[in-house]
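Internal tracking record. Fields below are filled automatically when a chain is submitted to the structure queue. Please do not edit lines marked as system-generated. If the sequence contains nonstandard residues, flag them in the REMARKS field before resubmitting.
Queue: standard
Priority: normal
Entity type: single polypeptide chain
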Amino acid sequence: MRVVVDLTKCQGYAQCAFLAPSTFQMQGDEALMYDPEPSEEQRERVRRAASACPVQAIQIDRLSTQDMPPIHAAPGAGRIVVVGASLAGLRAAEALREEGYTGSLTLIDDEPHAPYDRPPLSKAALGGRIRPDATGLPRRPDLNARWRLGVRATGLDLATRRVRLSDGTAVPFDRLLIATGVRARPWPDPAEAELDGMFVLRTRDDAIHLQERLLSHDRRPSRVLVVGAGFTGSEVASTCRSLGLDVTMAEAARTPLAGALGGVIGSIAAEIQREHGVDLRCGVTVEAIEGDDGVRRVRLSDGSIVDADVVVAALGGIRNVEWLEDSGLAVGPWGVACDAGCRAFDVNGLVTDDIFVAGDVARSPNAMFGYQFLALEHWANAVAQAEVAAHNMVSDESDRWPHLHMPQFWSLQFGNNIKSVGVPTFADEVVVTQGSVRERRFTAAYGYKGRLTAAVTFNQAKWLPFYQRLIEQAAPFPPEFPTVDRPEDVLPVPADLPEQQLLAREATVVVTGHRPTTVRSIR
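SYSTEM-GENERATED OUTPUT FOLLOWS
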């Protein structure tokens, strides 16, 4: 039995923890931890918990689609190929079958593993609560797809409608979904990257190797240095501290989480990290990592030296678009450009009819944020965009849907449940509207030119649906309404967001409509 929880929806009501306590547990006031592969003895309890969830955030193995009536697929849609078999790719494949598509379906992915959930890797899996290889995603038993796992897409030929693969073969298609996602940005020095004790964290194999080192009895780290205090780096530091390990954090910005939430909220995150024993060094970069056969010490740009035998490089992600560079599609470091219906653009800005994009690799316009192109690295967005793309792939023009998902994100670190809705990076001011920063229980609202654009909560997630409605209504900023637990001083201050170059490394939402770096067209 497989279980996954959409933690962007979860509001900590805890019915699941009462009904199936062996599978679901609460950490702190709001944060939910769960076992993604409960025993068969727990099946009935888990099903009851899923049914009782007030926000229907719990997903278990899906039902069969055999009894669903088939639909007439759109012209030329007899062979659908999905490149990228992670969350977005799997959900799109399932949605195609749910829509009634009965044609050929092929999923391609460079990882050898069946689709699995990534968020638990930096939290429960890394800390030993669950096995990293026990995070498989629930899926339908009758997907009836051809799986090409462990083979990489190396090129796309639009003229012959073929995807070229690293094993020398090619897969023909009538319609294609690009869902290749993001990979971890590697350490820039190849020699240092090969040292024993150097790690990145993105894949299941990354988590297995890092977990083995952190939990080792014989090679327990004397100190872990985490480079990059974005969400992944902060979660790794949190997990290491929960294991009793000494942790130093090196961050180029002035605060943790600066690229995603700005320096004002980032300064609160800095206080939390230091309260939990992290040796936080901001405004510094790594000059060199030294050691013979393994990591021994790290030299920082301020001249200091940190003795550490494990380094985790959390430098953000690189969108997997290299295989598309000569394809004629509009691709770049921000991903693959597509319209609101998930149809890819070519380099001339023309919409293709048979190439679709979904998930972390997609860059699409959002009507709620000035039609700016947004590149999102969000679990919920990957699911929602995949479902829209799948529907549009097999539907007539008159029945296609727009992707209008409101960006949402969550993180669990140092016992704090951090959630956001909207786009904090699309803002110039921020204000704490509810709760208490001192008690680490508050809501911060973000605004841009007098309009509410985002909200972030620390241990106060139940208010996010309220703020989401306000963002959708283009409510004024600062908010003009009385709230529960309102602070005495509600004064906006500059959000202190860094330059866009830094956003590429840390932000989970990147606004890509500003400062285009290249303009090209072909005839």
